[in-house]
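[audit] Reproducing an earlier prediction to check determinism. Same input, same settings, fresh worker. If the C-alpha cells differ from the archived copy the diff job will pick it up downstream; this log only records the rerun itself.
[audit] input (295 residues):
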Amino acid sequence: MNADISVIIPLYNAKKYLKLAVDSILNQTHKNIEVIIVNDCSTDGSLELCRELYGHDERVKILQQPQNMGPGEARNTGIRSAQGKYIAFSDSDDEILPDTFDRLFDVAEKYNADVVHNTHSIFSIPDENGVMPLEMLPSSADDENTLIVPVLMDQNAPKEITLLDGDRSVMFENWLKHGYNWVLWTKLFRRSFLESHSVSFGHMKIAEDMIFCLECLMQAEKYVVMPGGGYIYRSADSLSRGTKSPDNTVKYLRSQLQIAVEMKKRLEMIDFFRQNPQKITTAVDFVLSGLESGF
C-alpha cells in the first residue's frame, strides 16, 4: 500500500483500549494512511482481537514479534514494514483527533520537512471505566473547553509554525531547556530521512523515544515546529512510572547503565556530537537526571 502516512502501534496487553486507538486512526480525515500494529507477544488476547477486528482490512498490517522485545524493537519492526512517505507513532491505549494527520501532512509537504513537531497534546479525562471516547471531545482542538496542555515540558517551543535554522548548537541548548519535547507521538517523520540516517530505536526499554527524537532533531535538515496538537494521551504503566518495587528498582538501575552506553554509541555517529564530544556527556547526564527525577 503506497500510503502518505504509516502509523506504527507497538502492542502489548492493551486489549481494553485497542479498538479506540486503531479506529481513531482509521477515521482520520486524511484517508491515505496505513496502520501497522506490531504485537509484542501480548498475553491478554490483544492479538486475537486485532485479527478479529482488522484482519480483513487492507489498511491494517498485523505483525508478530518472535518474543517480547519491548516497544522500541516493535517500532523498528514497524519501520521496516512501512510503505508510507511519512511515519508516525501511536500507543495502543491512546487516541488521535480526526484532523490531526491532515494538519501534520499539509505542513510536512509545504516545508518539505524531515520532521514535523507538534508542541501540544490533549490529556484525557476518563470516565468511570477509564475511557474517553472521541465523541466526548469538542470538534475543534482550539475550543476553550478542551483540556490542552504542553506535552511534558514543551513550554519554551516557538509559538508559531517555525522552520528551525539548522544551528545545531542553538538547537541542542534549546533541547536542554525543554524547548522541544522528546515524545514520539507528537511528530511526523519522513521515512526516507529515517532510512538515510539509519535512525532506529535502541535495545533499551526506557528512554528509547528520547534518544530517537534527539537523533532526529540533531540530523534533520528541515525540522518544523508546529503549535497545537491532536494526540489524546491516556496515562499507562511504564517502568519509569510504575510501582517502585525492589525488582523495578534493579531494572531501572541496569537500564541507566544501558542508556548511557547506548546514547554514547549512537550520538558519536552524528556530526555535531563528533565535533563536540563534550556535548555527549551533557546529553547523557540530562537524560539520566530526568529519568531519575521521574523514577
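[audit] rerun output stored. Observation attached for the diff report: The longest helix spans residues 246-267.
[audit] end
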